[in-house]
Write a structure and sequence with these properties.
It catalyses: S-sulfanyl-L-cysteinyl-[protein] + uridine(34) in tRNA + AH2 + ATP = 2-thiouridine(34) in tRNA + L-cysteinyl-[protein] + A + AMP + diphosphate + H(+). ATP binds at residues 7-14, 33, 112. Its main location: cytoplasm. This protein is α/β, with parallel strands linked by helices. It has helices at 12-23, 44-51, 61-77, 84-103, 145-148, 160-169, 191-198, 200-205, and strands spanning 3-7, 27-34, 55-59, 108-110, 115-120, 123-128, 151-152, 210-213, 219-223, 246-251, 256-260, 266-277, 287-292, 300-308, 311-321, 328-333, 336-346. It folds into three domains: 3-176, HUPs (Rossmann fold, 3-Layer(aba) Sandwich); 206-260, Adenine nucleotide alpha hydrolases-like domains (SH3 type barrels), CATH 2.30.30.280; 265-346, Translation factors (Elongation Factor Tu (Ef-tu), domain 3), CATH 2.40.30.10. The protein contains eight helices and 17 strands. The strands form three sheets. It has a six-stranded antiparallel barrel with strand order 12-15-14-13-16-17. Helix 1 crosses helix 6 (160-169).
Length: 347
């Protein structure tokens, strides 16, 4: 009998994951990752008890702070917009936790992600989940071949409605299982307030206020700290003008916010760094793909070209709005996630 440890979050998806694996004949145990000082509203221990599986907690708060929160702050202070969920999947859930799971004697780690994997021609491939509205391959592109070989995602083959029906049929009260929030360590999703509270000493060393300029360098106003803004932002910039301005670039070194009319924020290409691929180790030639530069955004056709092993040029078939440094660019061919990387720059 194969042994699997399911990571319970306190939500419906991971709960149903545990149930399905038990039904399929796995020897199932549960673990809850303590990543912050807050517990989920519905106790994971109660879910494990309901499922009738052994339960334990792992306190990874210090690892989470070092590997996720501190880089998150650093990115904003460098004028970039990070996506910490991608790092967490790579370094915490399928990094530290997976290593601990294997040491505990389990064959697999299971989570409630809506994604799939297949083994083909000697390599593991990451596939989109069946439910297109819920599928989460965008957040999983940094997972390695070794990590993929020890992961189970039962929900990848199911629709969200099917998961809800399973939960209802076995006696879960769905209204207790709230959707996960956008960033788990920022309860109200107000990253600006989080930065003020967490990194006040670092912010004090920066010039809090700075100039807002157009592309020609003309001063249009004062910003309240460049880390408060993101590429593509229109509202709350603080520029009085008959025509709307959008944030086009953040120059952290010079403490400048560069703004421009909306048409100037459409970019033809981007440079992507630190790529990871599933069908091969490195991109060796030009490849036609569809690319997603935000989780909730539709894919768009593009060509990717290797500059070296660490840099990829992405040429969009149609210019894309507000391509944001620090965010992920993830490449697809149909259902297959070819790979992805972090946006370094755009033009």
């Amino acid at each position: 009998m194969k042994k699997v440890i399911v990571a319970l979050s306190g939500g419906m998806d991971s709960a149903v994951t545990g149930y399905l694996l038990k039904q399929r004949g796995y020897e199932v145990k549960a673990v809850f990752l303590r990543l912050t000082d807050n517990y989920p509203p519905y106790p994971p221990s109660a879910i494990a008890q309901f499922l009738g599986i052994p339960y334990t907690e792992l306190d990874l708060r210090e690892d989470f702070k070092k590997l996720i929160i501190e880089p998150f702050v650093k990115f904003y202070l460098c004028g970039k917009t990070p996506n910490p969920c991608i790092w967490c999947n790579q370094k915490i859930k399928f990094g530290i936790l997976l290593d601990k799971v294997k040491k505990m004697g389990a064959d697999y780690l299971a989570t409630g992600h809506y994604a799939r994997k297949i083994y083909q021609k000697g390599r593991y491939l990451l596939l989109k989940g069946i439910d297109r509205k819920k599928e989460q391959s965008y957040f999983l592109f940094y997972i390695s071949q070794t990590q993929l070989s020890h992961i189970l995602w039962p929900l990848g083959e199911l629709s969200r409605n099917k998961v809800e029906n399973i939960a209802s049929n076995i006696g879960f009260y769905i209204n207790k299982f709230k959707e996960s929030q956008e960033i788990c360590f920022i309860p109200d999703n107000n990253y600006r307030l989080f930065l003020e509270n967490y990194a006040r000493d670092k912010l004090d060393r920066l010039k809090d206020r700075g100039e807002i300029v157009n592309e020609q360098g003309k001063i249009l106003g004062k910003h309240r700290g460049f880390w408060r803004y993101t590429i593509g932002q229109r509202h709350g910039i603080g520029v009085c003008s008959k025509k709307p301005y959008y944030v086009k670039k953040i120059d952290a070194e010079k403490n400048l916010l560069i703004v421009a009319p909306r048409p100037a924020l459409f970019f033809k290409e981007a440079i992507v760094e630190k790529p990871n691929f599933f069908p091969f180790d490195y991109l060796k030639s030009v490849l036609e793909v569809s690319v997603k530069i935000r989780y909730r955004q539709e894919e768009t056709p593009a060509i990717i070209q290797p500059l070296n092993k660490e840099l990829i040029r992405v040429v969009f078939k149609k210019p894309q709005f507000a391509v944001t440094p620090g965010q992920a660019a993830v490449f697809y061919q149909g259902d297959i996630c070819v790979g992805g990387g972090l946006i370094k720059s755009a033009q």
